[in-house]
Amino acid sequence: MTSVRIMRNRDWANPVPPARREVLTATPELPDDSKPPVLFVPGFGHGAWAYAEHWLEHAAGRGFAAHAVSPRGHGNSEPAPKAELRAYAHDVVQVAAGLPRQAVLVGHGAGALVVAHALARYPARAGVLAAPVFGGWATLGLALRHNLFGTLPGAFGGKVRVGRRQLFSRDLPEPVARDYLKRIGHASRRAQWELLRSRAPEEPVGAPPVLVVGTPDDRVVPRSALDRVAARYGGAPLLFPGMGHDLMLDARWPEPLDAILDWLEKGDH
Length: 269
Prior knowledge:
Layout: H1 9-13, E1 22-26, E2 38-41, H2 49-52, H3 55-61, E3 66-70, H4 85-97, E4 104-108, H5 110-119, E5 126-130, H6 137-146, H7 148-155, H8 164-167, H9 174-183, H10 189-197, E6 210-214, H11 223-232, E7 238-239, H12 254-267
Parallel strand pairs: 2-3, 2-4, 4-5, 5-6, 6-7
Antiparallel strand pairs: 1-3
Helix pairs in contact: 4-5, 6-7
């Protein structure tokens, strides 16, 4: 299939500048052309490394060609202190369009919002929004309640300092959690402001199926916001009680990933 990318007037008048992007890949030992490639997109402050810990190899072990991109300013991609959300979405679309077959886009946290914007520009096979952070005041209020002093700087364009209890369950060993926290950076000031303003993404191109997964015990995403995002795409969220926000790094990381891959297999996406 030839990839199609949808351009908007702003894309022509004010194009996103090119940037060097980090992409990590795990390939199946026995490729299965019936299974689409999967492109994982991390949330703010995370990079492709967050999927390389567990999810890439596990997906490849189930026959899916698995890729993870670090949008500009994240992971080992090119620094981009002034990047907008559309630049992050542009990075996702560019990587997806370069894959040999129509891809499934999987975004976590604010990366789910980036994927939602990318879905309006790239005809994905399917979309998955994991613990989606679509922004707005409810999300800010929950973050302030659980991490007042770490969240306040982000409201004014500074670096958000997330805490262990915001991202992980108590099941994750403390040394492992501390190591992950040390690796987390931050998004650009502009992108953080855009997240707070919470501009709704456009409708996906080609009406692909979209699955929303999360946890009712999330200390970043309010349950009401999780339900609202799922309803936007015509469904209800698939929930994993007892897990923390970072589903791909928490102690029970196989559960949500296997559910996502099962959905892709059974739905013939």
